Amino acid sequence: MKSIKNIVIGIIVIIIFVAVGMYLRSTSHSTPQIGGDVSAPTSEAKPGTAVAVSETTKVSGSLSEYQNAELGFSVKYPSAWEKEEANSGVNFIIPIDQSQVETVKTLQANVQAFSGTCAFPPVTTVKSRDTVKVGSNTFNMIAMNNTVKSLTYTNRMYSLQQGAVCYMFSFAAISSDPSTTGLTGSNVIQAQNNNKAITTTADADFTAMVKSFAIVTTPAGKDESTVAPVKK
């Protein structure tokens, strides 16, 4: 029964992320073009320097930086997160501390870039809505928390419009009701407290990742019309 329940939970998670991905793709018609109508980059490679389409580098003992020159952004994230690249961005699987008494099933975050105007998917219950100012960037944010059939869903989304390109950031956490997993007595309370602490920490790390966002570009090529032919 436990394996069947895990499979069902996995299917639900996949449906949620596929639905968000389909919604974002439906609002766009092409991938963002670097060097187009995008605000001035906060970091730019020197002319003549080769830049990989995407790369990951260590920033510190616990922090890494993901940079995607094709989609025009970089973010810093905890090195313990498992990175999975996608055509429109990057997904992160956030590890769950199995040494604690907890019933957290899923922790995930992602960043997606697409051409068009930012718009959150239609939702019926929004716990909070806000704007977050970081430097010259202003992020829109919505947060949701719902319980359906003994499963608690915690979601947070940020959006950032940069010219003709929208950057969308999503966080999702799913946990089971401890009383339905065989835990009893004080373990139920302990699991509830740990679930909240684990989700809160992951959510805070996700928000820190969003705030680390920066625009990047590839080096500009030389105008071919101005290049004189080389005499032999």
Description of the structure:
By secondary structure, this protein is α+β, with helices and mostly antiparallel strands. The chain has a single domain (2-218), classed as Protein Transport Mog1p, Chain A. The chain contains 2 helices and 12 strands; from the N terminus they run αβββββββββββαβ. The protein has helices at residues 2-26, 186-211, and strands at residues 43-44, 54-58, 63-68, 73-78, 82-86, 89-93, 104-115, 128-134, 137-148, 151-162, 165-176, 214-217. The strands form 2 sheets. Strands 5-6-7-11-10-9-8 form a 7-stranded antiparallel β-sheet, with helices on both faces. It has a 5-stranded mixed β-sheet with strand order 1-12-4-3-2. It is elongated.
Topology:
Layout: H1 2-26, E1 43-44, E2 54-58, E3 63-68, E4 73-78, E5 82-86, E6 89-93, E7 104-115, E8 128-134, E9 137-148, E10 151-162, E11 165-176, H2 186-211, E12 214-217
Parallel strand pairs: 1-12
Antiparallel strand pairs: 2-3, 3-4, 4-12, 5-6, 6-7, 7-11, 8-9, 9-10, 10-11
